[in-house]
Amino acid sequence: MNRKKFLTLKICLICIFIVTFIMALSIFKYDRVISIIFIIISLTIGAITVTNIISMNKNLYGFFHELSRKTLRVENCALYDYPDMLVIVNNSNQIVWYNKLFLEKFCKSEELFGQSIDEILGCNINPLRKSHHNAIEISIDKQVFKMSSVPYGDYKTDLSMITFLDITELKRTSKLYEQSKPVVMFISIDNFEDIFQNSKESDKANIQAKVEQLIEDFLSDYDSIISRISHDKYTIITKQQYVQHMMDSKFKILDKAREIVTVDRLPLTLSIGVGLDFNTICESEQSAKQALDMALGRGGDQCAIKTSDGSFQFFGGVSKGIEKHSKIKSRIIATAIQELISNFDNVYIMGHRFGDLDSIGSAVGLADAVRQMGKHAYIVTDFERTLAKSLIEHIMSVSEFNMFISVPEALANFKNSSSCLIVVDTHNKDIIESKDLYELANHVIVIDHHRKTVNFINNAVIFHHEPFASSASEMVTELIQYFKIPNKISSYSAEALLSGIMLDTKNFVMKTGVRTFEAAAFLKKNGADTIAVKTLFSTSIYSYKVKASIVASAEIYKRCAIAETDEIVENIRIIAPQSADELLNITGVDASFIIYRTSDCINISARSLGKMNVQLVMEKLGGGGHQTMSATQIHDRSMKDVYLMLISAIDDILPES
């Protein structure tokens, strides 16, 4: 019987009693006997009504009590035997109740009441309890659980039920899905044209067969598809799980490729681009193309992997960039640059911050050629921070044009409708002389020789990048030879370009190719005075003493000379690289690192003779550069911290030394 029917019955019985009692009173004066009978009947009905109401209340309350008791018992049994782990904790994260699965998981014989759940799980659950809308994952005995909190009232005063949802199978399925994602790889032979230029058809076929056999052997253990899309490029479609195996082996195919003997004894190297962690083949293919371009831009002989978050990983890169003998590209680029410049009245040229002789020298040579085209050319530089003050002072003393302007002047005068920007000796937008000027320009030309970094200028109209070139000055010298200008460049411009080449090649010792000497010969024919260039490298006696003290403090670690100076000294940005060069003259030293302090950060200048790739070391510390010449800047760290970071990076590159 529900509450509504029970209430209706009580009202009816009470009404009958009242009506009977009123009738008995109304006939009392007419017939007392009948009135007394009715009174007795009404009292009897009243007594019966009260008795029944009391009895019905008892039965009803008993029913609800029994129902509640049985329901509570069912709830308790259901929670205790619930197929997922449950536990109730108090405000101190002490266990006050748990179900059977939780007991079986953590303790089969000992009671857990009063114990801290933080200690049992090995983690602090307070953040979970405070934010009941979130859940966290926790691993217990090779099982993965999604742990969430269900509050019993306010967090500060009451209990919370912690639920554990077993998602082990879900995670396994998710992992299988991730591992089975399609991955596109491109493999390119770096120096295909040079290797096959003078080879017989039989030799070409033999080498081609060796390369294809090498690729097939490399992929023999993986479920993959291989297709040759051109004479020097291959496409591979595989699964993500196999790429991880390749990464673990550091793409050993790169090392085996160098073992292939060519007819002219030229080294054969491969470049690999991979698009990893994408949901579709199209996305992976597009990223693989970008990764291959990055690998080639860093000198080849390496693998570049681009992931879905836009980051890159690199493997290999132990060989020097292979010099290309053909200058066809330089001629095409020179023509394109002249055509673009012809549309503007003003050309602004800038290099990297703390511009050196190569940065300023290449800008001077380019500005001279641009002026002969009838255009206004300006070199944007920071006169206070430049490392080429001697060159700037020399140019300003002999040139009839004042081509150097400050950054504020350039920003004030730059107009997109009549101006374009040329960036030399860097392609990294984070280290250019003025990022504001770069953002103003709609038409940008980049000329650089450094190995490609992730944060490169990606909106350049012309991106002339040759990682095998010795210097930006060498590249500009080649371009100038194809410029259609009325006169030769001036002698001071030739000297500026030659100083840049001499700086980056360490007087024609490091990274010097045939085209480097051809560029130097062209500059010599245009009036470059080697004695005048030599004076640009002169230093004071003070700088020489500081350099000597840095060299004397060096220590050897894994064939690497490491020196550090904590004093802020004048011209330290020039002295440190010179000290690193001096340390390479020590027997048994493959690379040198100078740690020095400037006003706002700690710097590392790195040099090598080519046996060790210092670029890889510096990239681990946030820097970059060349295989033989690199650097980085580290903020908010002590000298000791930076030293330990450098040691760790060297250990990663040379783990077995």
Kindly describe this structure.
- By secondary structure, the chain is of the alpha/beta class.
- A six-stranded mixed sheet has the order 7-8-6-9-10-11.
- Helix 12 (328-341) packs across helix 17, helix 13 packs antiparallel against helix 18 and helix 17 (472-482) packs across helix 19 (514-525).
- The longest helix is centred in the first third of the chain and has 49 residues, at 32-80.
- It is elongated, with a radius of gyration of 41 Å.
- The protein starts with a helix and ends with a helix.
- The mean pLDDT is 84.
Task: Name the descriptors.
657 residues, 24 helices
* General shape: elongated
Query: Roughly what fraction of the amino acids lie in strands?
Result: 15-25%
Tell how many strands the DSSP assignment holds: 23
Ends apart, CA distance between termini: 89 Å
pLDDT averaged residue by residue: 84
Q: What would you say about this model in short?
A:
A hairpin with a 2-residue loop joins strand 18 (555-557) and strand 19. The protein is of the alpha/beta class. The protein has 24 helices and 23 strands.
